[in-house]
Amino acid sequence: MRCHNVLISTQHSPDVTNEEIEATLIEKVVKKVIPAEFLVDTKFYMNPSKSFIQGGPFADAGLTGRKIIVDTYGGWAPHGGGAFSGKDPTKVDRSAAYYARYVAKSLVHHKIADRALVQVAYSIGIAEPLSIHVNTYGTAKNGLTDHQVVKIIKNNFDFRPYNIIKELDLLRPIYRATSQNGHFGGKNPNFTWEQPKKELKLL
Fold it and tell me: Which stretches of the chain drop beneath a pLDDT of 70?
């Protein structure tokens, strides 16, 4: 019905006043993005800390590891909260996230769906995941339901950590590159999770 709050925090030059920043952000950003009819009694919080002169890795150590949304899909996909970096592949925070990407790319590559979100949940001390869930956003092909797509996943992929490490060859010294441009996308041949599985058995 209306936009209640708008918060923007942005780095700025030290010689710009807070008043200038607020006026510019409201005029050049907020009003360009939010239709005027929703800006009714809206509260604006423009740089509420009043100073954001230093940014980046100097001020906020760790562009990776702590910045898990930047490391993944930029807010496009739900995130469980576990960082990847700083962990070896026996930790499913890292390896199962890569494997979920691998599974999703394989589903799309083999035209089982146009889009796929794969979610997996583990318990400490249990190798098999407690839950495997897929959301194809209604894009599954040939009349398949998401429940049936999960069956295809279970018939073709082994989510146990030992297998993930073996199948994706994760014990190589390949992880420095993930701290530069994120963990997904790109054409780095060492990112085995970006290469779809060659063959899938259907139902």
Answer: 56-64, 66
